[in-house]
Amino acid sequence: ENKNGTTNDVVTAITIDNNNNEESDQDLIQQADQLFGDDKLLAAARLLRKVQDNTLLTEQHYQRQVQNSKLTARIETPIEKSLLVPLLAVFNESDLYVTWIPNFDYPVKLGLTKSVKLRQEGRCHQLILANAYMPWPFSTREVVIDAMAIDDIDANGAIVVKMEKGKDDDPHIPPKETPDTVRADFDGGLLFRKCPHDHPTLLHSKTETRSAGEHSSGNNDSDGGLILVCFTMCVDSHISYVPKDLINFVTRSVLGLMWGQLLQVAEDIREGKREQHVAAIQAKQELYAWVEERVQVLLANIVNDGGSGCEKQHDLKESNENIKSE
After folding, report:
1. Alpha-carbon span 190 to 195, nearest angstrom
2. CA nearest neighbour of 49 among 19, 14, 6, 20
3. In the 3-class helix/strand/coil scheme, how is 162-229 assigned residue by residue?
4. Contact at 8 Å (CB) between 62 and 41?
5. Mean pLDDT of the chain
6. Among 307, 300, 238, 269, which residue's Cα sits nearest to residue 66?
């Protein structure tokens, strides 16, 4: 603020006629809309907080209409071979997502409130429901994900997980919890394969995994390469306008912290430190025995053939698909 009590974004000399709140509220909303048009979001929010009649406010007063509100992201991480089965377990135990995915109270409230496996078909196909609370004034978002894992180890030395929005007519999907809840769209995938020797993150990851290996008992990952985990997603939360500050917070903080926590949980499972996950794995001994067997085949192929076939397959996949990271 300067000496006159004004800021660069908003003029604070606003007169509110207490005898006619409706007219004054409309004036405040109109001024806030103008500030939103100039990308002065905080200044507009300060004005909207002065509105007396909250029934005049809708999500439109906090959003800017755009044609594309989708968030697209891609994350790639080399991991130790001994971390592959625990990491697969973290993804598979969808009922436990809510126990490790971080929640945020600052600078905005954002987090997961529920994760439920609605249906399991065979070993590798499940339907997942997740609910998340959003920063005010946005209502709760929920997403239904149809996830299917594909064993492509023998042909291409890879494990693939396809994730897409569940079908609206699926009888296993319950109604939305409240009328205000908005069901988001989700499309994504996971790819586990041998890490190419020239991957950009490999030099950095070698230092970290070597250090982690020195502190891990019984985990020898020095006998042939690393596993590359590639995660892609496209989420449409059906928000007409997402403030830039929220976009930056999600892309620069939330995704990174979630991914880091994911890897930490996998390490904890490997060391037997996550009681709920360990119990869930023990309850599905037949499934995880099969997972361990197939992963050992993948790792043996990586050691024996150097993964050249996998790298060629990945190069072909990259050339055929236009995967953009934002």
Report:
1. 14
2. 14
3. EEEECCCCCCCCCCCCCCCCEECEEEEEEEEEECCCCCCCHHHHHHHHHHHHHCCCCCCCCCCCCEEE
4. no
5. 75
6. 238
Higher pLDDT among residues 16 and 93, named by residue: 93
Core vs surface per residue 86-109: b (16+ CB within 10 A) or e:
bbbbbbbbbebbbebbeeeeeebe
Contact at 8 Å (CB) between 156 and 146? no
Please report where in the chains the tokens 């007219």 appear, as a residue: 23
DSSP letter (8 states) at residue 263: H
pTM of the model as a whole:
0.66
Structure tokens at 92: 């598979």
Lookup: tokens for 136: 């005010």
Q: What sections of the chain are H helices per DSSP?
A: 21-37, 41-48, 84-92, 97-100, 153-156, 202-214, 244-249, 255-270, 275-283, 285-305, 308-320
Beta bridge partners of 115: 130
Q: 283-323 pLDDT, tens per residue?
A: 999 999 999 999 999 988 877 765 444 444 444 344 334 33
* Nearest alpha carbon to residue 182 among 123, 138, 122: 138
Give the span between the Cα atoms of 254 and 256, in whole angstroms: 6
Which amino acid is residue 222, in one-letter code? S
- Tell me the pLDDT tens digit for each residue of 228-251: 999 999 888 887 766 777 777 777
Q: What percent of the chain has pLDDT over 70?
A: 70
Which tokens hold the place of 70? 């989708």
Q: Residue 217 — pLDDT band, cuts 50, 70, 90? A: very low
Q: What residues are paired with 187 via a beta bridge?
A: 164, 234
